[in-house]
Amino acid sequence: MATTKLTPEVDPLLQAAANAAPAAGTETVQMPVGVPGYTLRQEPRQVPVTEPPVLPVNKDLQYIGKSPTRWDSHAKVSGTARYTYDMQLPGMLYAKFVCASVPHARIVSVDTSEAEKLPGVKGVYVVQHLLGGAVLRNPSLDPSKYPIVRYAGQPVAAVAATHPHIAEQAAQLVKVQYDAKPFVVDMTQARQPNSPQVFPGPADQAGSAGGGGGPHDVPQTGNVHGPSIHKKGDPEQGFKDADVIVEGKYTTQVQVHNALETHGVVADWKPDLLTVWASTQGTASVRDELAAYFKMPKSQIRVITEFMGGGFGAKFGAGNPGVVAAQLSKQTGAPVWLMLDRKQEQLSAGNRPSSDQTLRIGAKKDGTITAMQLISYGTAGCGTGAGCAGPVTHLYDSPNLHTEENDVFINAGPAAAFRAPGHPQGAFALEQSIDELANKLNMDPIDLRDKIDSNPVRRVERQIIRESALWKSRNPKPGAGAGSGYLKRGVGLSQSVWYRFIRMDSSAEVRVHRDGSIEVLSAVQDIGTGIKTVMAQVLAEQFGVPPQQIAVKIGDTNYPIGPNSGGSVTTASLTPAVRDAAWQASQKFLASIAPALNTTADDLVLTGGEVRSKSGKLQPVSFRRAAKKMDTDVVSAQAKRIPDYDPAKYDTYGGVDVAEVEVDTEMGLIHVKRIFAVHDCGRPMNPMQVKNQINGGLIQGISYALYENRLLDPKFGYMVNPNLDMYKIAGPRDIPQLDVHVIESYIGQSSTDASGIGEAAGVMSAAAAIANAFHNATGVRIRSTPMTPAVVLEALKQAPQRSETA
Amino acid sequence: MKQFTLADCTTESAALSQLNGGAVVKAGGVDLLDLMKSGLIAPSRLVNIRNISGMNGIQSTPDGLKIGALTTLAEISENPEIKSQYAILSDACGHAATPHIRNMATLGGNLLQQNRCWYFRSDDFACLKKGKDVCFAFDGLNQYHAIFDNGTCPSVAPSSAAVALLGLNANVELSSAKRGKRTVALKDFYVKPEVNPMTRTVIQPDELLTAVTVPKPASGTRSAYQKYGDKKSFDWAIADAGVVLEMNGNICRKAAIVMGAASPVVRRSPEAEAVLQGKPITEETARAAGKAAMQGAQPLSMNGYKVQLFPVAIYRTILLAAGQMGRDPSAAG
């Protein structure tokens, strides 16, 4: 999801469908649209006649929209769930990367002879082609036998041995001779004209299946890749027309994904089939990258992901661990386990770019925005993708807009898509500026947003917040809600927006067996969000049996293609295909048993675990007994995702979050006491799982706001905190009360009308909400993250900004 | 991690007989495994003392306490006598690290763990503490480093328990096969980097730390410890304070004020103690003591904020010890 685009990404298939005349074989149906209790209504949609009947709203359903026990909860809690990291195969070798020990260099030679002599070492491979990071437009500018080292920790070679400790020892025996080059790891320094250059010429990075990457057709000056400029209307005139202008500089840090399970695979190269167990967000993306890299047919590669321990956007494709493990397996004839250690994970497996933003907003006295301008710089290391104009482009109505996004190369590991790319950074600046504008205009922050944000769903969300006890407890006067003493209480609000993306490569097969068992198969992986459970719910609803009776088989490219889970697409993309397959399979099932029941298929319905007759001419018969009447052992149907019913209609999702903080003004500590989060994601298929994702998003957002920070030593270019004690992530006592309210918001777009929640889960807005609460508490604006005691105490040295109060 | 042999010992004498040829003692294995995994030490033999029964447990004696070196932090923090008579020690042990680490970590290992400094702890940097002649923190990232005694090596003392035990005038018992037992006051146990940056304590390679003795506090003693971090869960202290007050009514006869994360070796502040001596404990005297504790502080380029944090940690902990303030919700763990 390149967030720098001004128009939402449109799938070519959707585009084609939108442009087509209403197809023959469609019918007009009425679908629920809007928010129950607020804006619910029926709207017509042109729908293919092959589609299943319209699903009513959640309260009228039995299994969808409910929260049955999570499919894999027992396996996860009891430790029986098998992750890639846990894989053990007969004769398996353990591989270890040799990583660059300098931040910038041309490799002169790699001597592997000592490593090869170590007993137990079975294979050594020197990396020839590096994946990830930007690539020179003109590669001849940097001739080299081996990939140029552009950051400390870059994979240089790998060894495979019979034991992990032998592999580790062997890795230390590989001698790499470097021709070191000047380097830069500080973004401000990298922007200077005389800075060492990370690339000797313009370089661009491709995005992954999960987004990330930056624009290609932009200028590059030194290390500055950009600007990527977007203009709407006449921003200069807009600022002239403004009664009030707010302007601020905001900085945010680099955050590392740090999924609990590191990146890696187990690769088993056999003559006819390469089998790869991968910790991935996209089984198909791993297969496709391996097929391209080794020039193999897709049919000779099988990728399996039974369980995976977190990705957050950084785990698409085979990556360097994938291709190197496959290479070593090919060389040695044995399965090869290659998982990154925590340090390698932090250095080379992706991160969220930093930002340095200057944001100006002009408005009329009544709040109407006349112009917005964002100039941003950010570093994605030796990659691109630091744009953060998504929020300013999509959250508020402004006739005039000017954004300039710049990537700044430094000698650090390349960024990767990270849960709502660009948005936590962008929202931190935008939502504080809107708060500042409200203060200047002496308007309530919710009233101001009602004026400038036309999204009907967020309007409902703001109304719920306006009526909450928490919001009512807010003292509107900044710095006054505190009372005496060193503890100051404040309440602040932030909004967020994410986009409706659909992946058309989303298919499922549903099978009904003569013993009454039902299964659903798709290559989709469960990245921890619970798609397995949701798939079972969809089948349960269709067949009228409890979800526990459905066998869900996923995470294997032997099954029909599944979507790569990035950009909040999985539920929205896959569940309509699952329901369509279930619907078709159920129709085939009824046709298969009807003759034996002396009736016709259209007389039969599946409900309450039974097959019932509409005409009443049959006694209800249990599903299991009815299945015995099938005229063949198994009926099945496979369905693919069809385009949204109304592809021209473009939806966004988001939420409104309110944070309550207590600031210890002597210790510089911000205690987040509570977050009240009101979010939407189309039809919530499983409200408990939606809440779980929002809990996780808020925690990740709090952690970003207050703690996490990748720190590079400016003189030597090494990360000083590549572990999990000094790279600080929120722990149990740092997590406040989270009150999550999920609203139903129907959009009438598919047979399940589901959407995604991964990004719109609070991770975008937590930092801004906390910062606005901090201002409400202290009267002081804090414009940089992480808001550590050092930063807070420095900010508190400023006098409260009276200018913000009317 | 290099391969090593493991000598599993069940008696003190068996363990002592193994302590030669570069062998390293393993008790809870918490800091040791971290050091081995990051390649900072690569012993060829580990001597596991975890299963020595005589080095475990808390004994109440007429003179005070004797705590076996293998007693876990969790056991110490939950001991009723320590909770009531030596609150500073139960506070310190009960707020170290995380519950699961406190269940594994031993008192001896806690006192012997290596200092905190990300340059020292990284295998990318060969520094003074690894026998080289350069400290990277001075010109580098030093926001978590020492504000006192930081002229040679500004790494910080890691142990909360050491803060408490210094305030309680504790002693450590050391044992060697050749030289027998000796007792060292905790105040003399740690070695300042100026003396030898590579040696953290006076313990010799053939010695075991077997026990810690704590003198019985004078009547009227009240004590407390609090630590503060960026985070409340699982974080190292950015400021901490141990306070022992010998009270006569509301008058403080004698005080011990100790800081951990301020310097490479746990540090008592005679300046702060002098402010309280003979005075009633009030918010005013407590704040004055906190302020006095910063005399001589020499912050580095990025850790000036710690000079602001320590006085706050100290005054609030004095008031906690004196019963004039509850446990600080801002404090960690």
How would you sum up this structure, described in words?
The complex is a heterodimer of chains A (806) and B (333). Chain A has 806 residues and is α+β, with helices and mostly antiparallel strands. Among the domains of chain A are: 167 residues, Aldehyde oxidase/xanthine dehydrogenase, molybdopterin binding domain (Aldehyde Oxidoreductase, domain 4); 175 residues, Aldehyde Oxidoreductase, domain 3 (Alpha-Beta Complex), CATH 3.90.1170. In chain A, 25% of the residues lie in helices and 25% in strands. Chain A has 20 helices and 32 strands. In chain A, strand 23 and strand 24 form a beta hairpin. The radius of gyration of chain A is 28 Å and the shape is globular. Chain B has 13 helices and twelve strands. In chain B, helix 5 runs antiparallel to helix 9 and helix 11 packs antiparallel against helix 12. Chain B is globular, with a radius of gyration of 19 Å. Chain B has a five-stranded antiparallel sheet. Chain B has a four-stranded antiparallel sheet with strand order 9-10-11-12, sandwiched between helices. With 333 residues, chain B is an alpha+beta fold. Chain B is 29% helix and 21% strand. In chain B, strand 10 and strand 11 form a beta hairpin. Among the domains of chain B are: 122 residues, Uridine Diphospho-n-acetylenolpyruvylglucosamine Reductase, domain 3 (2-Layer Sandwich), CATH 3.30.465; 101 residues, Enolase-like, domain 1, CATH 3.30.390. Chains A and B meet through helix 4 and helix 20 of A and helix 8 and helix 13 of B.
